[in-house]
Amino acid sequence: MEQGKRENKSTVVRESALLVACLLPGFNGDPHDPLGELRSLADTAGAIVVDELMQNKHKPEAKTFIGKGKVSEIAEMVRARGIDVVIFDNDLSPSQIGNIEEVVGCKVIDRSELILDIFAARARTHEAKLQVELAQLQYTYPRLRAMWTHLERIVGGSPTGIGTRGPGEQQLEIDRRIVQHKVSELRLEIKENLGRKQREVAARNKDFFTVGLVGYTNAGKSTLFNTSTDGDAYADDKLFATLSTRTRRWDLGGGDTVMLSDTVGFVRDLPHHLVASFRATLEEAIHSDLLLIVLDVSHPRAQQQLQTVTEVLGEIGADKQKRLLVLNKIDKIEHNADLLVFQKKFPEALAISAKSGVGVAELVERVRREMKGDMRQMRLAMKLRDGRAINLLESRAQVLDRQYSDEEVVMSVLIGTRQLDQLRATGAAIRELKD
Ligand SMILES: Nc1nc2c(ncn2[C@@H]2O[C@H](COP(=O)(O)OP(=O)(O)OP(=O)(O)O)[C@@H](O)[C@H]2O)c(=O)[nH]1
Ligand SMILES: [Mg+2]
After folding, report:
1. For residue 117, what is the enclosing H or E element?
2. Neighbouring C-beta atoms of residue 131, cutoff 10 Å
3. Given this model, what pLDDT does residue 181 score?
4. Ligand closest to the CA atom of residue 233
């Protein structure tokens, strides 16, 4: 299942890159290191960052986004340092890319394209590959013609490297009609997958309390997933280490089990096509009973990352369930004040280190509490022939007493209110006896 049939059409090429950011009012990245995240993204994509350039502006130029003088400066740097690709932190229009490429004489890509490229290289499952392919086609569609002519002129033949992966060189040549046909085919396949996924998720939700791990990329979701379950999710100090969802049993101890899902990380200014096509991947998170928002609280931009995560959760429609904020990587925090700020603002939040395990026991207790709801002592009656209901109750509740009659068993149990609702939702016929 992990290895889809679809071949990855990309090859990672070590290209020398120049990073460019045009800082506009309202810039929501790191003011102390505005190119920090783009640098990590470029590095993840396999580029070698040779130089960086920034410009403050009140508003972008219509033709080239950054100023004319800066474009000449870039052209100069490209020639002097043998740069293969110029990567913009801003999102550019197809014609802006064309205009800049004309002057600088090498490939120009923007932030969205870079992110798409990383997703293309990382996608492993059939589903993730379909989604990336669709997002790439939708993204490149408006710039299809411009791109092809420019690439031909610039690289003199088949394009290679960052930003040219994906739909592939032949597909850039083909008629737009064919691309559109392909887009609707992919949409259909993804829709069918989504339908199947929704049925799977609904079935699982009937039997288990489900918990979704969400958060900014590199927050430590997969690390927490691995320590909590026997899951072997790939965790690495790279952006977008995880691209598809994994769900595993999380044994909370004391006979309590929930289902835990690890998901793709979020990033600011995620191309919106990508958000839409990754909906299926996030299905588990959208419909989980509880969301754990994992935040790298040691990160200088933790506040903004949390905001991005909250926004994306709204966009994908994961806004109905209870959320619990998990402040991760507390072992890495240099100034305790940084943690206190969050704890003061979010008194409900849990501070943990997924790596060392500090705080994980408290997290388990909180999840258990969420899963069970308020604990109550009750007397519940079930038909003896309803073995499933009896089994469920025996395994989920603390049974204090059992009284059998010919047809019924009456159990005195200590059980959470939410837990009882869940048992009833499975169709188990459980009758409450009032004293
Ligand atoms: N110091 C420290 N490092 C951590 C902790 N948790 C995770 N890490 C490290 O942070 C990096 C990212 O961890 P992952 O678990 O891959 O992060 P993720 O949220 O799954 O990232 P994506 O899959 O890219 O969204 C890895 O190098 C982990 O070892 C922690 O509590 N403390
Ligand atoms: Mg991960």
Report:
1. helix 111-122
2. 28
3. 85
4. 2
Question: What residue spans define the domains of the chain?
Answer: 16-177, 208-371, 373-433
Amino acid at position 357, single letter: G
How many helices and strands, by DSSP H and E, does the chain display? 16, 14
Q: So what's the pLDDT on residue 7?
A: 38
- 139 CB burial (10 A radius; 0-12, 13-18, 19+): buried
| CA-derived radius of gyration, the chain | 26
Ligand 1: atom nearest CA of 238 is 24
Ligand 1 mean position, distance from CA 125 (Å): 21
Around ion ligand 2, residues with a beta carbon closer than 5 Å are 221-222, 241-242
**Architecture of domain 373-433 in this structure:** 2-Layer Sandwich (3.30)
Straight-line distance from the first to the last Cα atom of the chain, in angstroms, rounded to the nearest whole number: 52
| CATH number, span 16-177 | 3.40.50.11060
CA atoms within 13 A on the CB side of 305: 25
Ligand 1 center to 223 CA (angstroms): 6
How far, in Å, CA of 382 to CA of 370, rounded?
26
| Residues β-bridged to residue 328 | 296
User: How distant, in Å, are the alpha carbons of 99, 188, 207, 216, 420 from that of 428?
Assistant: 66, 37, 11, 39, 10
Per CATH, 208-371 and 373-433 having the same topology is answered: no
Measured CA distances, 263 to 139, 187, 210, 247, 337 (Å):
23, 21, 13, 9, 30
- Least-confidence region, from 33-37, 79-83, 95-99, 274-278: 274-278
Ligand 1 centroid to residue 329 C-alpha, Å: 8
- Cross-sheet strand order for the sheet of 85-88: 48-56, 16-23, 85-88, 107-109
pLDDT band, very low/low/confident/very high, at 141 (cuts 50, 70, 90):
low
* Close Cβ partners of 370 (under 8 Å, ≥ 6 residues apart): 209, 289, 290, 322, 324, 418
CATH of 208-371, one of 1.10.10.10, 3.40.50.2000, 3.90.180.10, 3.40.50.300: 3.40.50.300
Question: pLDDT tens digit string along 279-307?
Answer: 666 777 888 899 999 999 999 889 989 99
C-beta separation of 88 from 108 below 8 A: yes
Report yes or no: 333 and 298 within 8 Å, Cβ to Cβ. yes
